[in-house]
Amino acid sequence: MSNTFLLELGLEEMPAHVVTPSINQFAQRITEFLKENRLNHGEVYNYSTPRRLAVIIEDLADKQEDIDELAKGPAKKIAQDEDGNWSKAAIGFAKGQGGSPDDIFFQELKGTEYAYIQKHEVGLPANKVLEKINEPLEAMVFPTRMHWGSTRFEYIRPIHWLVAMLDNQIINTKILDIQAGNSTRGHRFLGHTDIEIKTATDYVQTLKDDFVFADALERKNIIESQIEKIAKDNDWNIDIDQDLLEEVNNLVEYPTAFYGNFDSKYLSIPDEVLITSMKDNQRYFYAKTKDNKLAPVFIGVRNGNQKHIENVIAGNEKVLVARLEDAQFFYQEDQKHDINFYVEKLKNVTFHVKIGSIFEKMERTTVAAQVLAKYLSLNADELEALKRASMIYKFDLVTNMVDEFPELQGIMGEKYAELMGETSTVAKAIREHYMPTTAEGNLPESKVGSVLAIADKLDSIMSFFAVDLIPSGSNDPYALRRQAYGIDRIMQYQSWDIPLDMIQDEIIKQLDTKIDFSAHKNDVTDFVLERLRQLFKGEDIDKDIVETTIKSSTKSPLIIIELAELLKQKRNNPEFKGMIESLSRVNKLASKADSTNTEIDIKLFQNDSEQALFDSISKIDTKQTIEVLFEQMNDLSPIINKYFDETMIMDKDEKIKNNRLAQLRAISDINAIFGDLEELVIK
């Protein structure tokens, strides 16, 4: 028999960002419950609005699958005594399987006889199993939780109703004191408080008839088509931001898109400010004219129908204009002062109580930026622009506009810098230093902006590590992991070979501060390099290659990235296995060498293979690209093999032995650039 199961949980309005992950979790927990309880089923359909989470499951089995299995118990010598009497262990085993000792039989397994019972369990009817459907609902987890009334039970929002139906049959279950029924609720304002659902398959249409589109995808498509019609009717270009669409979709049950106007005088404010006011603060979409200029309009979505829509438009216009008035005022007020005024204010703004002010951070970043610039050989114009940008790049944090719209930091810095006479290079670097703003966000494009971004992020990591505020476990309140990952990505994008240990040494040498930055220097380097694991995951690098290269002796993220890509590319080559085996053999023997004995005395050589190996090593240039170095080491492999064939490393003569180990140590030191070769899986 084909059954349709409906489960709906009715709640107080949930935050928009919680709805989608909640319905996904809801559906997953329900299907896992059915699987654990041996109830087969067909398609699962998800439904969600701000006030409800629901699933419809088609072709649900009438009953659980029966269980036929062989249950294994204790060994025979434990189950029975010498006279054949059952032990307590056997009696307990039988009872646990729902039988008696008479059901036990013995069967040999690997030379030992064990007690067994043939277990047969008849499956329960579906409606009986579903009486426990409240369990997966009560187990749901949320980013924030609340409790209400006198209960200690916590949930994302208070629960108001529960629908659980198998076709037209109500399931006998409840959550808290709310008994499941066949009554749902329509739209809060347009619909009814109680709506009877006659059968599970009527659910979607019953809600539609009461002004609720329960299908989130259908609701989203409606919003998109309504906005597209507005754009077409008015000859506008409207970029339907998918993140905003998702948020708006999870705020409404019966969507109606509309548009309103604002005075064109506000177009004198930078587009970014207007868009932020509309999109981030009011959840409006914006429109552009055919010549790609921002139009003095906004597009909103109402949770309701067209009735009295003119009042809705007027109310939204009033709210937006109030925000635009504030923005215009802030924009004009901010321009009454120069950049030096704002930079001076930063002396009184704390970056962190243990580290100092934002002004002091800019001073440190200026040092770091100059060190990086010289290492990267920036030209005179770039050096000058970088120095100026690093001395002022946080100034917009104390402007009125950024105080009101924090998400515009950097963006307003660029706008104001240009208005106040800074070059476009300096202004762009101020905006770009925040990039990437998310783990996979856009990277800075300009060279000056990229250097400033690395310097700023590196200073943050060094500073927090210096005062022992180091991320542990999942705890990372200052987003240092994201900043380290950003450093790695920028270096990769710009193809910059920057050794983190050497750069830190030079920065620390030039800093004039009471903070001890040297104590955790190695920890900072390891921390930034560890973020490469995240980068490698996105580039499908095998785990053994990741573990190998992360332990490279080089402290340059770019070289490690190039090395991982090279090993990925070369590992299927015929000669790869032989090369790695040769180098690994060298490493094992070299570990026995005296680290203080690095001199190689060619007078102690006793065969031609020793001299050949020495000559070959002397020609290797470790400053070449990683690919050239790899080929050089590959060419060295047969010479190493011949050397081992003709040479006894652990010679009885101590001098000869140490000389040979020193020669192997020289090769091992080069190998260290490739990482820990023991981690490589060689097929």
Notable features of this structure?
single chain; 683 residues; alpha+beta; 5 domains; 5-stranded antiparallel beta sheet; 4-stranded antiparallel beta sheet; 14% strand
How would you characterize this protein structure?
The protein is α+β, with helices and mostly antiparallel strands and 683 residues long. The chain has 5 domains: 3-63 and 126-208; 67-121, no CATH class; 216-334, no CATH class; 340-530, Hypothetical protein af1432 (Orthogonal Bundle), CATH 1.10.3210; 558-679, Isoleucyl-tRNA Synthetase, Domain 1, CATH 1.10.730. 48% of the residues lie in helices and 14% in strands. It has a 5-stranded antiparallel beta sheet with strand order 2-3-1-7-8. Strands 13-15-16-14 form a 4-stranded antiparallel beta sheet, with helices on both faces. A hairpin with a 5-residue loop joins strand 15 (285-288) and strand 16 (294-303). It is flat. The two termini are 53 Å apart. The mean pLDDT is 94.
Strand order in space, largest sheet: 2-3-1-7-8
Helix content: 40-55%
- Overall geometry comes to flat
CATH fold assignment of the largest domain: Hypothetical protein af1432
Overall strand count: 18
Instruction: Report the average pLDDT across residues.
Output: 94
Number of continuous helical runs: 27
Name of the level-1 CATH class of the largest domain: Mainly Alpha
Rg to the nearest angstrom? 35 Å
Biggest sheet layout: 5 strands, antiparallel
- Poorly predicted regions: none
Instruction: State the end-to-end CA separation.
Output: 53 Å
> Structural class of the secondary structure composition?
alpha+beta
Domain count: 5
CATH architecture of the largest domain: Orthogonal Bundle
Give the DSSP E fraction (strand runs of 2 or more residues): 5-15%
